[in-house]
Structure prediction request, 446 residues.
Amino acid sequence: MSASTVSATPAEDGNTAPEAAAGPPGRRFQPGRMASSLRHRNYRLFFFGQMLSMMGTWTESVAQSFLVLDLTRSGTQLGLTLAVRFLPMLLFGSLGGVFADRRDKYKILYRTQALAGSVSAVFAILIATGEIRMWIVYLLALSLGFVNVFDNPARQSFISEMVPPEDLPNAVTLNSVAMNMARVFGAAMGGGIVALLGVALCFGVNAISFGAVIISLALMNKSALYPGKRASKAKGQVMQGLRYVRATPELLIPLVMIAIIGMLAWEFQVSLPLMATQVLGGGAESYGLMASLMGVGAVFGGLVSASRSRPRARSLCVASLGWGLAIVAASLMPNMTTELVVMLFVGYGSVTFNSYAKTVLQLAARPEMRGRVMALWAIAWLGSTPVGGPIIGWIGQDLGARWALGLGGVAALACGLLAYPALARIDRRALVQVPASASVEPGAAR
Prediction:
């Protein structure tokens, strides 16, 4: 699915979404576009702040998986921990999107980043003092989940306020690149720290890393932002967002794909630790290395995606098919060496699929609806974990880690095949009408 498909989509008031007006889809590899959004100082600050913060998050992610396995020795419990963390997103994510549409996203992020850092700090103290228990792990995971209800839609939709519309696809993709560069170093660092120094330090590192985003926000020039039009307070805004998505195939089809794939394929925090320990005979350091190699592939895939201005709609299906094949291959590898090689392709496929999906959602949504649309992305991609995490954990525990990982690959293959005809039709319709480009000046509401 591509941003170009939005151009033929009427908004609720009968007008075409302004962000659709950036021209026809770009398929040609354009190295000069690879980092075009980084020329904007505000986005550049955010990019590096996010990357440092996500390094801490990945360090903690590795540690949390092995903390739960040390406490319970259960893949099912590992899945349930992730389910508890993302349950608030599933239940209340739409409310977080409405909140982001009504409020200053810049101010929201200040508060949510500070709260998330506080949760990690409490984790670190309790682990270091030997007071950690599984019920506390669940409670703190739930607390972080409620912070993410407000943080995720604000953070995702804030990207569009740091760059003009023509650089938004590149900015969204580079944001995914930053996340995966962080995974390369953060996961490896997490595995090494867990193996050598214990899990408490990983949570402490993450608590400190949230300061990077807070500092980047403080250094921004607010007059150079591209503020979106805020939604006025009114009843029924959650349902309004749902109706808007249901009436817009360019949003609905990617969100359905994201929900299914997010529920069954994007559960690597469950399936990969189980693969590392059950099948490949490793531990925390092996899982960290697998996640890092996956991040390397994702960085390369993200840079390739960033060099293209606008992928076509059916490109999302192609990405889903390629990613599914890579995941299935990873589930069949006989040893760690071959597994690490395939992880490169798994990472490449993950960032390509996710960046294509987020780009079209950002561009298809009207500015005053963007927070709600990105909240639905978070519900589909992350909020599906309360369902998928326990399922993958149970399959890994009872049927084996290969089955748990392979199921996600089959889900991605099925989504790519089934959605292809509909997205190809959207591509053809988008070629009929491409509105003239609209320019937006910094400081002006869109």
